[in-house]
Amino acid sequence: MAGRKILVSGASGFIGIPLCAALRLRGDEVIELTRGESAEGRVHWDPAAGELDPQALAGVDAMVHLAGEPIAGLWTNAKKRRIIESRRAGTTLLAEAAAQLRPSVFVSSSAIGFYGDRGDDVITEADGNGEGFLAEVVRVWEDSAEPARDAGIRTVALRIGLVLGRGGGMLGPLKPLFKFGGGGRIGSGRQWWSWVALEDVVRAFLQAIDNERLSGPYNVAAPEPVTNAEFTKVFAKSVRRPAFVPAPAFAMRLAMRDMADEMLLASQRVDSARLRETGFEFEYTDLARALEDSL
């Protein structure tokens, strides 16, 4: 299936960099969307202004959409608007271009935040949209791909868990905290964290591009989710530091407001069986090994 022309938005991001490298390594031609000027291998776009010339994308066989305002940061009202609107505008613009160009597949990044806080319940794609800001963000994100779906293009949404990898994801803010002995469970520690290694995320995108059986939403999280208490215990061991300073829920809420409830204290015990049924096998199923390789 290699040797195709594949468009990637968010190519310079945490997932985009290794994904583009993997695509090129197997012989695909990658076209990156950029807010700068168009050049060889790059096409200008500005989602907020609705700027994208579909003719510059002629011949694209697949579209992969990763771009969006970073979730991390203090959730002011202005930040929340940017998070939602960047996903609405960017996804709609690309999906409309896809409807004109008719690539074989439109693959969009998504997130398990779609489900909201579900306690100890095991979550599958059959579960509906949850409550909260992140659940609304992901609903808007996925709904904005409607122009591609309406045009009959195979459309895939990868609902990604907490990503473990070098240079970003969950480990960025956690590593320095633990290095200085300030790590510990967050809140009760009983909330489920559904993690996934960055390498497996990249492989899931390749699977979504190549496997014509994939359509609709797919959870992308390792088969063995853990509680926050277990995660912090294993993480502390990985960085050879104690995990004896818990972070009370009230303190996290004071520091991070509603972001704490939705990103750190929410419980999401996600099952990725639907993706595994397509033949996908997770390389990283053990948290300790995933952390060791990521760190």
CATH fold-level label: Rossmann fold
Low-confidence stretches: none
Spatial strand sequence of the major β-sheet = 3-2-1-4-5-7-12
Reading off the top of the CATH hierarchy, the class is best stated as Alpha Beta
- Overall geometry comes to globular
Second-tier CATH architecture: 3-Layer(aba) Sandwich
* Total number of domains: 1
Count of beta strands: 14
Q: Could you give the order of the helices and strands?
A: EHEEEHEEHHEEEHEEHEEHHHEHH
The largest sheet is: 7 strands, parallel
Number of H- or I-type helical stretches: 11
The CATH homologous superfamily is called: NAD(P)-binding Rossmann-like Domain
Q: Tell me roughly what share of residues is in helical segments.
A: 25-40%
Output the structural class: alpha/beta
- CA gyration radius, whole angstroms: 19 Å
Sum up the structure in keywords.
single chain; 295 residues; alpha/beta; Rossmann fold; 7-stranded parallel β-sheet; 3-stranded mixed β-sheet; 14 strands
What can you see in these coordinates?
The chain is α/β, with parallel strands linked by helices. It has a single domain, classed as NAD(P)-binding Rossmann-like Domain (Rossmann fold), CATH 3.40.50. Helix content is 38%, strand content 18%. The protein has eleven helices and 14 strands. α2 runs parallel beside α3, α7 crosses α11 and α8 crosses α9. The longest helix has 25 residues. The mean pLDDT is 91.
